[in-house]
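Key result, reporting period 2: structure in, sequence out.
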């Protein structure tokens, strides 16, 4: 089992952290550099977390647990129009990234209006490629309760946000509801907004932890972070991808930002523990930009 961590420190001697992670059998999931500051998202064996904390202390850096690292979250807004997208959905997205999540913002084509809102099958399939979806809805109780058809049959966990306080049992199809996050025409910087965002983080982390526990009963044959690393090593075209995070880790697979038609055969031939990737996973076309989506199989699903 791996623990996901975030290391924050200076660029100087950061290679010592990366070498330690490699020696421990861990992985660097993501690296972000801003001038002289460095942020590393790491995955290390549970028993070796203390060694990483000692190295961070030696380099005057900091280490914190990042439960959302290695996950991909969809932030769904009813439309891309100004009355829905800014500012709450944008701030939700930015706040979740602080805790290690890789998130994508999705605006529905016809999600506006409590009586005429609609979600297409393609939009559902795109959302279901993620580990969890956050539906950022509005400020009125009646409007939220009349839009449950947007997510009630989505197969991944769904967290709904809005302004009023509503019992989640009243929202069909939602796994959790977080109030205090409706349509607000400003940045979410006030105390009550920050408290609502922190509650959202707690709710999302709890759901993801529960998913990990459920998966531990029948886990994928190999961890997704190992698949990510091997694809980066064995597929040369990855080095030519300039999009942030060319291979995105998920709980049960990875999203490879290479065109499916051009590269799915090469990705299928990646060797992991002497097994071809297509022998231990389902490789299919992603609804996002025709990328390649890899969903790992468990031992029982192969049998």
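The corresponding designed sequence is given below.
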């Amino acid at each position: 089992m791996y623990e996901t961590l975030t290391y924050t420190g200076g660029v100087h001697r950061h290679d010592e952290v990366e070498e330690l992670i490699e020696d421990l059998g861990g992985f660097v999931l993501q690296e972000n550099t801003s001038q002289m500051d460095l942020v590393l998202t790491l995955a290390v064996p549970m028993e070796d977390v203390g060694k990483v904390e000692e190295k961070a202390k030696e380099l005057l850096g900091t280490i914190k647990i990042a439960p959302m690292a290695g996950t991909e979250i969809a932030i769904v807004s009813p439309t891309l129009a100004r009355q829905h997208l800014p500012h709450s959905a944008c701030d939700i997205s930015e706040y979740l990234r602080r805790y290690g999540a890789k998130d994508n913002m999705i605006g529905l084509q016809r999600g506006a209006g409590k009586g005429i809102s609609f979600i297409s099958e393609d939009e559902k399939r795109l959302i279901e490629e993620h580990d969890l979806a956050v539906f950022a809805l509005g400020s009125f109780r009646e409007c939220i309760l009349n839009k449950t058809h947007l997510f009630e049959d989505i197969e991944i966990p769904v967290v709904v946000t809005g302004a009023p306080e509503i019992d989640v049992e009243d929202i069909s199809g939602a796994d959790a509801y977080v109030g205090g996050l409706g349509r607000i025409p400003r940045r979410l910087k006030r105390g009550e907004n920050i408290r609502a965002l922190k509650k959202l983080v707690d709710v999302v982390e709890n759901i993801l932890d529960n998913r990990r526990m459920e998966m531990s009963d029948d886990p994928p044959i190999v961890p997704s972070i190992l698949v990510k690393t091997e694809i980066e090593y064995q597929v040369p075209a990855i080095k030519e991808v300039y999009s942030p995070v060319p291979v995105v880790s998920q709980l049960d697979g990875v999203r490879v930002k290479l065109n499916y038609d051009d590269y799915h055969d090469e990705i299928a031939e990646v060797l992991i523990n002497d097994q071809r990737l297509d022998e231990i996973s389902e490789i299919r076309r992603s609804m996002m930009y025709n990328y390649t989506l890899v969903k790992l199989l468990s031992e029982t699903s192969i049998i």
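Residues 224-302 form one domain. The mean pLDDT is 89. This case is discussed further under Risks and Mitigation.
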